[in-house]
Amino acid sequence: MNFSKSCIAAVALLATAASAQAETRVTYKSAKTTSSYYQMAVQIAEAMKTASNGDIIVTVEESQGSVQNVMEAAVRPGNYVFTTPPALVRLAKAGKAMFEKRANPKFTEIRALFPIPSLTMHFVVADDKGIENFADLEGKKILIGKGSFGAKEGAKYLKLFGLEGKVELANVELSNAVPALKNGQIDGFVTAGSYPAPNVIEAAAGTGVNVLSLSEDQITKTKRTKLVIPAGTYAGQDADINTTSLPVVAYTTTQMDNATAYALTKNYWDQKAKMGEGAAWWNGVDKGLMSNISGKIHPGALKFYEEAGFDISKAQH
């Protein structure tokens, strides 16, 4: 009897060990818990668990920003995945700007996995104010917020387009932009987020808005990546909107084995449409965003892209 119990215990222990060995654990460093990018990370974690039948477990970690994510790539062991604009990875590898005094040879081991929704600039104005282009913003009251990427870009664009000092900047929190627009406190607001942006959807449905389109010359002046928001994305939007974006990519390092990188990348693209049913921002991700990835893609991810017929450049190999 005792022997039988011992056998059962040993078998149970072996089964547990085998299960633990089969399970792949991944750390996904994202953004602040209040951001849309943290929500995306949670959705990716759920998608990975579903697609792998529980064999891949992704733990989402909050981050204070993309620079922190890149810095940790030099010291984090194992399956570390993080999100950041490709430009920061380039700076880290070159030891420039914010990485000048924190250069690390480990940054050269960073490898891309897949693109996620880009930070997309939206210049949103009430549709009854006669604002059809940026020149029409002169004399208007616009909310650009403070401290965020969108606020900095908004201020930069106003200066680039000759509107510095000609637009009244509203002293209202960006979180109050939609009600402020609705009650006439402001004529418009600037926001940067993955499209379709929830606050723009709300404003378009409840108030009626125009989202301004940038000219090719204006896009060139910004030195940002062009992005087209298709017609019909927002209520009342009859034409495509040409705007700018800051690409964002999920990266890992060479410490991740090829099989894990392959599984993560395949599962991501396989689950993207399903994720898009629950959150429309995933519908803005397609094969075209692959060109935003600068530098090398992880060999495991490359294997998937080659099998799936993606157009991958020589520089990405």
Q: Could you give a short description of this structure?
A:
The chain contains ten helices and ten strands. With 317 residues, the chain is α/β, with parallel strands linked by helices. Strand 5, helix 5 (149-160) and strand 6 form a beta-alpha-beta unit.
- Low-pLDDT stretches are 6-21
SS-based class = alpha/beta
Cα-based radius of gyration, to the nearest Å: 23 Å
Q: What level of helicity do the residues show?
A: 25-40%
Order of helices and strands: HEHEHEHEEHEHEHEHEEHH
Share of residues in strands: 15-25%
The end-to-end distance, rounded to whole angstroms, is 60 Å
Please, what is the average pLDDT?
91
Count of discrete alpha- or pi-helical segments spanning 4 or more residues: 10
Strand tally, please? 10
Q: Tell me about the largest β-sheet.
A: 10 strands, mixed
Overall geometry:
globular
Structure explained in plain terms:
The structure is a single chain. This protein has 317 residues and is an alpha/beta fold. It contains ten helices and ten strands. Strand 5, helix 5 (149-160) and strand 6 (168-169) form a beta-alpha-beta unit. The chain is globular and about 60 Å long. Residues 6-21 have low confidence and may be disordered.
